[in-house]
Structure formats: structure tokens, C-alpha cells
Amino acid sequence: MNMATIHPTADVSPLAELGEGTRVWANVQIRERAKIGRNCIIGRNSYIDFDVTIGDNIKIQNNASLYVGLTVADGVFIGPHVIFTNDKLPRAINPDGSLKSAADWHVGKTYVQYGAAIGAGAIIVTGITIGRWAMIGSGAVVTKDVPDYALVVGNPARVIGYISSTGVRCATQEEAATLTMHEVAQ
After folding, report:
1. Which string of DSSP letters, residue by residue, matches 83-130?
2. How many CB atoms lie within 10 A of CB 144?
3. How many whole angstroms separate alpha carbon 119 and alpha carbon 92?
4. pLDDT in tens for each of the 186 residues of the chain?
5. How far is it, in rounded angstroms, from Cα 49 to Cα 70?
6. CA atoms within 13 A on the CB side of 169
7. Who contacts 30 (Cβ-Cβ below 8 Å, separation ≥6)?
8. How far apart are CA 124 and CA 130, in angstroms?
9. In CATH terms, is domain 5-88+105-185 a member of 3.40.630.10?
10. Using CA atoms, how far apart are residues 151 and 136, in angstroms rounded to an integer?
């Protein structure tokens, strides 16, 4: 962690791993066994739960909530106030009225693939994969897998088109993939 920059008000577990060049801003909490790659930016008031894995060159904007069960590939943008959930059937108590414990629930798994972008205020329901270079519109509620290069909006989120790595709108997924290959080659 000595190669990362950590604001004095951040609460970073000594059991977390932070890559070289990563910057952690004010009031961030990073829990034990979280793994954060190189050159990431973790915005003010964000929460990164235990065992979350984050790749290199990630931008996480202010007030984002990333819960256990989440894996984020390299180059992903996570906008302000984005929430990743981890329990499809949340309850505080069991049927007998006793308080639920960690043993009483199953953590869902969510994957965000290379280069994806998630707009402000989006909610990502657990158990899905967001594809490479996909873009999630602000305020979307994502309840199912998002294909590579898809542009999704709404509640529930639905595909309204496709988009290349530089943000060019495309008619098809194939066109977005081809354009992305051309953009990367330049």
C-alpha cells in the first residue's frame, strides 16, 4: 500500500491490497482482502467491501458502493452514486424472527468486463455480467446480463443500441466491435 496515495480520512484495511499509483480520496472505506489494481482513482465517500476485486486503471466516482461478490476488469468507469448489490433476496430476519447472520445468505457474483462504463446513479443487481465496452446509462437498473458494446438505459435496463470504445453509436454489435478494433489500432 505504500505506493498508493491515501487521504488521511480514508479507512483502508491493512489487509487490503492497493496497486501502485492508486489514489484513494476522503472518507473512502476499503475493507479487508479487497484487491485494487494500479492507477485507480477511488472517489470521495466510496465503499469497497471485503473480497471485492478491482483491476487496473479504474475510475470510481464519489459515493459509489461496491459490495462483496463483485469483480471489475481493467479500464472500467463507475459513475457517482452507482450501487452494486449482492443479495437477490435480502431480509433482516429469518422466518422465526431471529436476526440473519452471514451464514443465512448467499452472495451473488457480478462481473464487469474490460472498458465498460456505468453512469451516475445506476443500480446493478447481483448475478449478472456487464460486457466489454458496454455503457450503462445514468439511473439504469440493470437486472440481466449486458452484451459487449451494448448501450442500455431504463428500469429495467434495456438495450437501445451499441457503442464503440470511443463512444461512437453503432447500429449493430458487430459494427461497434469492428470500429473498436480500428480505434485501438490507431
Report:
1. EE---SS--SB-TTSPBP-GGG-----EEE-TT-EE-TT-EE-SS-EE
2. 12
3. 29
4. 469 999 999 999 999 999 999 999 999 999 999 999 999 999 999 999 999 999 999 999 999 999 999 999 999 999 999 999 999 888 999 999 999 888 888 899 999 999 999 999 999 999 999 999 999 999 999 999 999 999 999 999 999 999 999 999 999 999 999 988 887 777
5. 9
6. 5
7. 10, 11, 12, 13, 16, 18, 24, 36, 42, 48
8. 9
9. no
10. 6
Q: Which helix (H) or strand (E) element contains residue 29?
A: strand 29-30
Question: Element (H or E) spanning 181, and its range?
Answer: helix 173-185
Question: Which contacts qualify for 24-29: CB closer than 8 Å, 24 or more apart?
Answer: 25/62
The grid coordinates of residue 51 equal: 473480497
- Are the CB atoms for 68 and 52 separated by under 8 Å? yes
Grid look-up 476485486 returns: 53
